[in-house]
Amino acid sequence: MHQAADCKTALKKMIEISFDVVLCDVKLPDGNGVELLKELKEKYPVTEVILLTAYGNIPDGVRAIKNGAFDYITKGDDNNKIVPLINRAIEKVELEKRVLHLEKQLENKYSFENIIGTSELILESIELAKKVAESDTSVLLTGETGTGKEVFAQAIHHASSRKNQNFIAVNCSAFSHELLESEFFGHVAGAFTGAVKDRKGLFSEANNGTIFLDEIGDLATDLQVKLLRIIETGEFIRIGENKPSMINVRVIAATNKNLQREMELGNFRDDLYYRISVFQIKLPALRDRIIDIEPLSYHFIRLFAAKSRKKIGSISQDCIHKLKQHQWKGNTRELRNVIERCVILAKGNEITSDLLPIEIQNSTAFYPDDQHLSKLELVTVEKEHIKRVLNFNNGNKTQTAKLLGIALTTLYRKLAEYKID
Q1: What tens digit of pLDDT does each residue of 285-318 get?
Q2: Which of 33, 38, 159, 164 has the most CB atoms around it within 10 Å of its CB?
Q3: What residue segments make up the domains of the chain, in order of their start?
Q4: Measured between alpha carbons, how far is residue 359 from residues 104, 322, 328, 362 in Å?
Q5: How many CB atoms lie within 10 A of CB 141?
Q6: pLDDT tens sequence across 4-41
Q7: φ, ψ for residue 200, nearest 5 deg
Q8: Which of left, alpha, beta for 25 (phi over 0: left; psi -120 to 50: alpha)?
Q9: Closest CA to 148 of 252, 276, 280, 286
């Protein structure tokens, strides 16, 4: 316990020592306890302040509570209340500290710093995501299944001004059309069979926050129209209701489909595409950033070793080599599952190649060891490189030619020569 005779001394002690609870008189030699309370709460919001006064009055009590006092009591008659009051204040501070700790953990978990990788492709995607996070712009995340689109969506949300509001994720391909509309917008009681009470939809839950629409390419056309209206006007109508509701929500969408091709086929609306793709980020496939396989593997080892209470600190170079040879059609998600399996099977403190699934142990890479590199035919390397760059650009030949540094006519000739669709 520490004492201070006046406001100046109290403020000095607060700088030197972190106090959970402050017991403060209203009348002080160099000031007023109610005003000191206001300054303390502004600088140390977690600290709880209990004000004591010899002559209680309603205006001071109101000001004290308004300025953030835990309680305002009169000395003398309330002496027996002080100790229980302090205990309750301490309990509140401890709870607030735990909440702040959990919020910090959550912030770290979903921060951009938690996205593993040093390859140029992933760093470029992270940089783009950081820039768009500061705005309220709709974002479209594209890339193969398992490339971490929801991880990026979470990071964008937690780096935005909406980070303290809800982040709602929904997989558009996981529900039937009828159920998805109810999930999206909610319904009123009696709107359909089984609707026994009013229900808020996911968009309402995400109000003032962010909604992440995964697999948006599978969204039915009529729901695409309603989604477009929400993005443009903030209005939607619950099932069974005539009056529109208003919300303020940021939309982050994701797909592994080529939406431009889906538009050509009539499966996706042009106007919705142009609204959600104001800022588009392409997430690279794991096979296109082989350099990241090792740090990702170590990250997953630490994660699953901690969960299974095993002391596993390394992975053999032979195992790393085998992992780099694999094509990773399931991308980072597949690697995560493989490492989890290895940790479960591991008996020692190292992950070795014999713990890998048979298909990975027996896989052969397109890029072999350095000593065999000279045996690759140039045409094979060129064909594979063109295919990857074309895939990276979602089939956009003009952009592909630009990235390859060749004329568009040259690209068309090579596509025909190598029989690339």
Answers
A1: 999 899 999 999 999 999 999 999 999 989 999 9
A2: 33
A3: 7-107, 116-284, 287-370, 377-417
A4: 40, 10, 11, 5
A5: 27
A6: 888 888 988 888 888 899 988 888 888 888 888 888 88
A7: -75, 145
A8: beta
A9: 286
